[in-house]
Design a protein that fits this description.
This protein is of the alpha/beta class and about 280 residues long. It has a domain at about 145-275: Cytidine Deaminase, domain 2 (3-Layer(aba) Sandwich). The chain has nine helices and 15 strands. It has a six-stranded mixed β-sheet. Strands 5-6-3-4-7 form a five-stranded mixed β-sheet, covered by helices on one side. Strands 1-2 form a two-stranded antiparallel sheet. Strand 11 (about 210-215), helix 8 and strand 12 (about 235) form a beta-alpha-beta unit. Helix 7 (about 190-205) packs parallel to helix 8 (about 220-230). The relative contact order is 0.13. The mean pLDDT is about 90.
């Protein structure tokens, strides 16, 4: 895929430089600042419009696969037959080619609204489309407190967009020892997770060998996307919602919130998390 010109020419994909007048202690400095890009990305399946997401134009091939899987457009990665990126005046189009029987089913559950960068389920027409329950996760890793601490401590070193712009979320994959294996960033938290799950599949990484960490709250769609990808442990640095907890419980996913080096809160299926001596998380 060819990335948009602004991103392709940038030393920091997903960001552009813009002038800023910066005031500090009463002094003015005219500078160039790194700004995260946020563009409309239309997802088209076999020539039929499906959704428009506001996203950061980087790692879009990962996003295409992760989004197609989490939205149920395809059942397995090999059903994504082709991806083409097209730049238009209004934004970008991801043209997906999927099996004809999958494309036919989309007529029953098209999206009619844009998906804003803060919304992973905007535009769903029916309740059953919004509240799709993924299959129960089958992976069963055991995650230690030390591994979670290591992953949380290692996030910043991999967040190049956030370091430069201060405007992006991250979704990371850590192995059982807490080493960050993959990390994807986006202005939308759900986009970052779709990018991560797409990268996991493309890299052939087994979801039973680690856990996911997100730099956001754990909302319903984050749990849905994680469970759909077969991720058994999802740790968020902020709080979960009640619906997220209910979905995590029903799908067998271990949901961790308020994850910080030194502590966390485990809301569902706590047996996968081995806390510190004395039973404390």
């Amino acid at each position: 895929m060819t990335l948009p010109e602004s991103t392709a020419d940038s030393p920091l994909p997903g960001a552009v430089q813009r002038p800023v007048a910066r005031w500090r202690a009463g002094h003015l400095a005219e500078q160039a600042d790194w700004i995260a890009e946020e563009v409309p990305v239309a997802v088209v399946c076999n020539g039929r419009d499906f959704a428009v997401m506001m996203a950061t134009p980087a790692d879009l091939e990962d996003f295409a696969l992760g989004f197609a899987l989490s939205e149920g457009l395809i059942a397995t990665p090999d059903e994504l037959l082709a991806v083409a990126l097209r730049q238009q005046l209004e934004g970008l189009t991801l043209a997906l080619t999927i099996p004809a029987e999958r494309a036919a089913a989309l007529a029953q559950r098209e999206r009619s609204l844009e998906g804003r960068s803060g919304c992973g389920v905007c535009g769903s027409r029916r309740l059953e489309d919004l509240l799709r329950i993924p299959p129960r996760v089958t992976a069963d890793p055991r995650i230690s407190a030390a591994a979670l601490d290591a992953a949380l401590s290692g996030l910043a070193a991999h967040q190049s967009l956030a370091a430069a712009t201060g405007a992006t979320h991250a979704a990371a994959w850590a192995d059982r020892d807490g080493r960050i294996r993959l990390l994807r960033e986006d202005v939308g938290r759900h986009n970052a997770l779709d990018k991560l799950t797409g990268a996991l599949h493309r890299g052939g990484i087994e979801r039973g060998d680690g856990f996911a960490v997100v730099t956001s709250r754990a909302s319903y769609e984050m749990v849905m996307k994680a469970a759909s990808a077969g991720i058994a442990v999802l740790a968020a640095i902020s709080a979960p919602t009640a619906l997220a907890i209910a979905l995590a419980d029903s799908t067998g996913l271990t949901l961790i919130g308020f994850a910080r080096p030194g502590g966390c809160a485990v809301y569902t299926h706590a047996g996968r998390y081995a806390g510190r001596p004395g039973g404390e998380p």
